[in-house]
């Protein structure tokens, strides 16, 4: 009995010791995050790269339509060529939002590299046309979808460089191209580099 009580006390003390060493969970102010940098990509890197790309594209005049109307943009293939399992939408979504807010571009979700981003545009047509339960005047007709004018494609690359026995440098390249679909010509291209230096013990994936 005494032995059982003794082990219970020991386990309780150990739990207090290790429990006290745990990092406290706190909310992050993403607009003013002073947290330490990490070797892998984090949301600050995506925010910075996206903002730079938006400013570069808008300043280039490539999306300034002469008649004052907006270009229709489709998102093409964005390749993740890093060691990390990242969702490229982290970058592209921010760029899409910025371009939409500029009033110069609208994005079509009816087509995409792997099919429609939002299949409902086509599905509603297939399911509702001729269906007597629906007022056919409210069903989208043929020839109403708008084809894209421009295509946005790109790649995110990673390069690891050994500086010395203790230090490494990791470089991330954000590359984007804006292509005129009718001509196949790139109207705009840019690259942003995020470089980090840290311990060889740090994991960059």
Structural features, described:
It holds the Pfam family LpoB. This protein is an alpha/beta fold. It has a single domain, classed as Rossmann fold (3-Layer(aba) Sandwich), CATH 3.40.50. 29% of the residues lie in helices and 27% in strands. The protein has a 5-stranded mixed beta sheet with strand order 2-1-3-4-5, covered by helices on one side. Strand 3 and strand 4 form a beta hairpin. Helix 2 packs parallel to helix 3.
- Order of SSEs, N→C? HHEHEHEEE
| Low-pLDDT ranges | none
Major β-sheet strand ordering? 2-1-3-4-5
State the name of the first-level CATH class.
Alpha Beta
Strand segment tally: 5
Give the biggest beta sheet.
Answer: 5 strands, mixed
* Morphology: elongated
Global mean pLDDT: 88
Radius of gyration: 25 Å
CATH architecture: 3-Layer(aba) Sandwich
Quick overview of this protein structure:
With 205 residues, this protein is an alpha/beta fold.
SSE arrangement:
Elements: H1 2-20, H2 43-60, E1 71-81, H3 89-102, E2 105-107, H4 120-128, E3 150-162, E4 167-180, E5 185-199
State the main characteristics.
Penicillin-binding protein activator LpoB; LpoB; 205 residues; five-stranded mixed sheet; alpha/beta
């Amino acid at each position: 009995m005494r032995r059982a009580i003794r082990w219970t006390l020991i386990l309780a003390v150990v739990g207090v010791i290790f429990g006290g060493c745990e990092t406290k969970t706190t909310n992050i102010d993403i607009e003013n995050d002073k947290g330490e940098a990490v070797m892998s990509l984090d949301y600050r890197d995506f925010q910075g790269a996206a903002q730079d790309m938006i400013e570069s594209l808008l300043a280039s005049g490539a999306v300034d339509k002469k008649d004052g109307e907006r270009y229709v943009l489709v998102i093409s293939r964005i390749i993740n060529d890093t060691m990390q399992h990242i969702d490229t939408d982290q970058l592209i979504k921010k760029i899409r939002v910025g371009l939409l807010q500029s009033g110069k571009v609208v994005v079509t979700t009816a087509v995409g590299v792997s099919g429609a981003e939002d299949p409902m545009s086509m599905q509603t047509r297939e399911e509702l046309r001729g269906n007597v339960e629906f007022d056919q005047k409210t069903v989208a007709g043929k020839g109403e979808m708008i084809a894209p004018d421009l295509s946005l494609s790109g790649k995110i690359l990673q390069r690891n460089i050994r500086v010395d026995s203790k230090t490494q440098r990791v470089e991330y390249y954000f590359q984007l191209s804006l292509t005129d679909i009718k001509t196949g010509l790139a109207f705009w291209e840019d690259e942003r580099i995020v470089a980090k230096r840290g311990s060889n013990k740090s994991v960059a994936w």
